[in-house]
Amino acid sequence: MPELPEVEVVRRGLASWVRGRTITGAEVLDPRSVRRHAPGPADLIGNLEGAVVADVVRRGKFLWLPLLESAPAHSGAADDVVPSFALMAHLGMSGQLLMEDSALPDEKHLKVRFTLSPARDSSGTEMPDELRFVDQRIFGGMFLTDLVPTPDGAPGGLSETGLPLVAAEAAHIARDPLDPAFSFDEFYRRLRLRRTGIKRALLDQGLISGVGNIYADESLWAARMHFARPTDTMRRADALRLVEAAREVMTRALAAGGTSFDSLYVNVNGASGYFSRSLNAYGREGLPCPRCEELGLHTLIRRDSFMNRSSYSCPVCQPRPRNGRW
Ligand SMILES: [Zn+2]
């Protein structure tokens, strides 16, 4: 399943390919991939044809394309036109967004095809004319959603234009640690109101978005914090250290092109997002803790069952609290 850094890699790639281009046609090859668009595939296609991709925005793992209903009448007036709706793209477990030339054969699991107006990149090379949504397991999908103003007036998420609009479907989720408008004060205030363990809080998209199981474990390891630490008594400095650790771990993963466990995951230009990861805790049960090892200690990473999944931690660096909440 793609985590936040992978989705950000997709967002950046996609933005460079599709921004400013007109969707000249759309084809739904499998209606299951647009099942969340209630009015049906024909309505989706009808609304997309002729629409212009104004931007590519991400908040947490939510990704959407704000759309203009049609190309602005005057080329110079593009900045004055505000997008009114968006195409939401849910990658699910195995969804891929591929830029391809229409001459290339369809992928086996091609679900939705978008044809784009011709465009050239900065070197003058013609860009591929199709955006394809390929999904093997059909947990992902696409649908149209309204854009609504952000309550704080800040950009809706990471984007190229910074418009203060958010997809209605993503308005309920909190900002993620890579979002410049993320408010630590707000996060800490709300964290203290919870009576839960810190990892549960980290995975709560309403409190902080985009932190999945892998990055939760890696952030907690980096911050030397046990996953069961109670949130209601957490000191401000500890919470800050954890958020900064999350930001750092994700920024590093982003620089490396994202990290994904799913070999099905392919980023927007078709290159695999999989890379040799440098994980310190996640998935390393029984292997030495790298930080302890540097100190000459031979401590093994342990695995605990947690929310039907696993939590990986170092018993020395991340001591279990007496009053922990699992
Ligand atoms: Zn350790």
Automatic annotation (TrEMBL):
CDD domains: EcFpg-like_N. PANTHER family: FORMAMIDOPYRIMIDINE-DNA GLYCOSYLASE (PTHR22993). Belongs to the FPG family. It comes from Arthrobacter yangruifuii. SMART domains: Fapy_DNA_glyco (SM00898), H2TH (SM01232). The keyword DNA-binding applies. InterPro entries: FPG_cat (IPR012319), FPG_Glyclase (IPR020629), FPG_N (IPR035937), H2TH_FPG (IPR015886), Ribosomal_uS13-like_H2TH (IPR010979), Znf_DNA_glyclase/AP_lyase (IPR000214). Residues 280-319 form the FPG-type domain. This is Formamidopyrimidine-DNA glycosylase. Keywords: DNA damage, DNA repair, DNA-binding, Glycosidase, Hydrolase, Lyase, Metal-binding, Multifunctional enzyme, Zinc, Zinc-finger. It catalyses: Hydrolysis of DNA containing ring-opened 7-methylguanine residues, releasing 2,6-diamino-4-hydroxy-5-(N-methyl)formamidopyrimidine; 2'-deoxyribonucleotide-(2'-deoxyribose 5'-phosphate)-2'-deoxyribonucleotide-DNA = a 3'-end 2'-deoxyribonucleotide-(2,3-dehydro-2,3-deoxyribose 5'-phosphate)-DNA + a 5'-end 5'-phospho-2'-deoxyribonucleoside-DNA + H(+). GO terms for biological process: base-excision repair; response to oxidative stress. Involved in base excision repair of DNA damaged by oxidation or by mutagenic agents. Acts as DNA glycosylase that recognizes and removes damaged bases. Has a preference for oxidized purines, such as 7,8-dihydro-8-oxoguanine (8-oxoG). Has AP (apurinic/apyrimidinic) lyase activity and introduces nicks in the DNA strand. Cleaves the DNA backbone by beta-delta elimination to generate a single-strand break at the site of the removed base with both 3'- and 5'-phosphates.
